[in-house]
């Protein structure tokens, strides 16, 4: 190649690279725009200094332009690497500390290049040789020259790896972009290797900047024809991570040896732990409830961590590579606690409804049959009593449904102390023979409106089913910073085992006539409000129902 042709190609290379750099810079802040602009600017610098070096006449001028060439050369591999990482979505590596770390060797390269005459680390010696009637400089590489060369190849390779995954992308535009970028890297890279091996007849002139003319054209084509920065895959990887981190379900990733290699916060919270404590542990150690998890299992299983109230539906999916080989598994933990609670509530409502309504209806029918033959005030009164029971039961059903409805909407605050006193006044009127003792709380606090029905049913149950000849109820309130606890104790017979099955097992057994919904409403209403309820039998008789409700903040 003649010097004249080389000059012409270098001018074209500079023009194309400068145009591409401006186009890339205009695309800020799109992923990779700044890095690509710096990459093309570095290529322009390298080509420009080579052009000036070729035109220089003295050896000192040629040495000067060779030394300052390293300003552009050193920035090229770093710009390429961070462009590739940004373009392919590896944004976690674009932090300042990684950039500064990658710039250490380029910074030393520029320093050693500009001060080579003092230490000769970049070039050991320099001489002028004749090439086609022109004087060109021939320089013997020093030790740092090879450090820079190997570092450049290393960063070039690291930057190429993420792009390779998009060559087979299902989206053709990503294929075209990636092929253009990789080809743009391969051409000057190969040219530089051949030059260093002495396989090109260029008499000491590095033709790599000339090879960049093709790279610049490819990069410019990628920017314009393939919308390199307008349509790029950068959001794909962060989006997948975002989905993994923010999906409502818990996700646990296992390797082939059933070790936890990744887990999101949702899964860790559901298991009552943290990702840090679970990562790297065998699944049967991290999640003992799954110690019998079969390696090929794809069915679903129910998990209750630590025997608590949270129920998780666990499904297992295999992770396969491109050859169809299993390389790991994903455990999906879906919280079905509310679904199971709703199912159990419907079951209780169905059984109680069928039991109470059917029993009362059968009694009414028998009374009507008797009244057809006998005009009896007693049987008429009995029929009326059962009709009133059905009416009362329907009122309880409406109350339960209303509690469910309120539990699905935003909390509606009520004044705690006012609600307590109004309820107790109502109970004193309804049960005049009973003694009600109250130890309240002076603080002016607010709780959710569901508390009204919960507390009313707790006191009513304590009085209505109290068989003691001198029924008594004690209501004690203890106010905390975030919760308020109300203890309702009585001297009655307590709650029988059949009804407590609703609390202990989450199931319901055949209930006695007229019972069931009061207890259920206490439990369900407290759960919907985010509180807790406990039942403790007193010695020698009686029962204490402790209801803990969150205190609501009221904006002033």
Automatic annotation (TrEMBL):
**A Pfam cross-reference name:** HATPase_c
Kinase as a keyword of this entry, yes or no, is yes
Record's catalysed reaction(s): ATP + protein L-histidine = ADP + protein N-phospho-L-histidine
Class of this enzyme:
transferase
Record CDD domains: PAS
Gene3D superfamilies named among the record's database cross-references = Histidine kinase-like ATPase, C-terminal domain, PAS domain
- EC number, as in UniProt: 2.7.13.3
> What molecular function terms (GO) are annotated for this protein?
ATP binding; protein histidine kinase activity
**Alphabetic keyword roster:** ATP-binding, Kinase, Membrane, Nucleotide-binding, Transferase, Transmembrane, Transmembrane helix
In terms of PROSITE patterns, this protein maps to:
HIS_KIN, PAC, PAS
Output the InterPro entries linked to this UniProt entry: 2C_sensor_his_kinase, HATPase_C_sf, HATPase_dom, His_kinase_dom, HisKA_7TM, PAS, PAS-assoc_C, PAS-like_dom_sf
Q: Where is the PAC domain?
A: 296-348
Record field: transmembrane: 6-25, 32-52, 64-86, 98-115, 144-167, 179-198, 210-228
The record's annotation in SUPFAM superfamilies points to: ATPase domain of HSP90 chaperone/DNA topoisomerase II/histidine kinase (SSF55874), PYP-like sensor domain (PAS domain) (SSF55785)
Domain PAS, residue spans: 241-281
> Could you tell me which residue ranges the Histidine kinase domain spans?
352-553
Q: Which PANTHER family match?
A: SENSOR PROTEIN CREC, SENSOR PROTEIN RSTB
Q: What is this protein called?
A: histidine kinase
């Amino acid at each position: 190649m003649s010097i004249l042709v080389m000059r012409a190609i270098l001018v074209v290379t500079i023009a194309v690279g400068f145009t591409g750099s401006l186009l890339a810079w205009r695309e800020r802040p799109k992923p990779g725009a700044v890095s690509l602009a710096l990459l093309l600017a570095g290529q322009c610098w390298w080509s420009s200094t080579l052009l000036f070096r070729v035109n220089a006449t003295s050896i000192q001028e040629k040495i000067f332009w060779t030394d300052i060439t390293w300003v552009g050369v050193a920035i090229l591999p770093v710009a390429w690497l961070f462009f590739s990482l940004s373009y392919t979505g590896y944004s976690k590596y674009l932090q300042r500390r990684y950039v500064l770390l990658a710039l250490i060797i380029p910074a030393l390269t520029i320093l050693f290049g500009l001060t080579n005459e003092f230490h000769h680390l970049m070039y050991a010696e320099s001489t002028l040789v004749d090439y086609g009637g022109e004087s060109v400089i021939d320089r013997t590489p020093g030790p740092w020259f090879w450090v820079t060369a190997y570092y450049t190849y290393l960063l070039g390779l690291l930057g190429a790896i993420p792009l390779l995954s998009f060559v087979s992308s299902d989206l053709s535009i990503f294929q075209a972009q990636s092929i253009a970028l990789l080809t743009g890297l391969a051409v000057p890279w190969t040219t530089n290797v051949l030059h260093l091996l002495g396989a090109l007849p260029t008499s000491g002139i590095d033709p790599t900047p000339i090879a960049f003319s093709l790279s610049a054209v490819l990069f410019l084509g990628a920017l314009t024809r393939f919308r390199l920065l307008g349509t790029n895959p950068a959001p794909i990887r962060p989006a997948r991570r975002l989905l993994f981190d923010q999906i409502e379900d818990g996700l646990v990733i296992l390797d082939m040896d059933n070790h936890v290699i990744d887990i999101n916060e949702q899964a860790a919270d559901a298991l009552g732990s943290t990702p840090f404590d679970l990562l790297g542990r065998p699944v049967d150690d991290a999640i003992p409830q799954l110690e019998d998890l079969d390696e090929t299992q794809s069915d679903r299983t129910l998990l209750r961590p630590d025997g608590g109230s949270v129920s998780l539906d666990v499904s297992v999916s295999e992770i396969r590579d491109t050859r169809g080989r299993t390389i790991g598994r994903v455990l999906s933990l879906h919280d079905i606690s509310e679904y199971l609670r709703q199912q159990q509530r419907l079951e209780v409502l169905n059984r109680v409804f069928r039991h109470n309504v059917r029993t009362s209806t059968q009694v009414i029918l028998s009374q009507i049959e008797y009244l057809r033959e006998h005009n009896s005030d007693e049987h008429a009164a009995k029929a009326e009593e059962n009709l009133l029971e059905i009416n009362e039961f329907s009122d309880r059903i409406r109350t339960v449904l209303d509690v469910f409805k309120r539990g699905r909407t935003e909390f509606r605050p009520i004044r705690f102390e006012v609600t307590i006193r109004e309820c107790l006044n109502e109970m004193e009127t309804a049960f005049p023979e009973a003694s009600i003792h109250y130890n309240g709380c002076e603080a002016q606090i607010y709780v959710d409106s569901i508390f009204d029905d919960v507390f009313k049913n707790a006191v009513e149950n304590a009085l209505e089913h109290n068989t003691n000849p001198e029924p008594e109820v004690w209501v004690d309130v203890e106010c905390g910073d975030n919760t308020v606890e109300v203890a309702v104790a009585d001297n009655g017979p307590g709650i029988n085992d059949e009804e407590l099955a609703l609390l202990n097992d989450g199931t319901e057994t055949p209930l006695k006539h007229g019972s069931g919904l009061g207890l259920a409403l206490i439990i369900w209403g407290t759960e919907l409000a985010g509180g807790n309820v406990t039942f403790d039998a007193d010695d020698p008789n009686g029962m204490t129902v402790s209801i803990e409700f969150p205190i609501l903040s009221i904006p002033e």
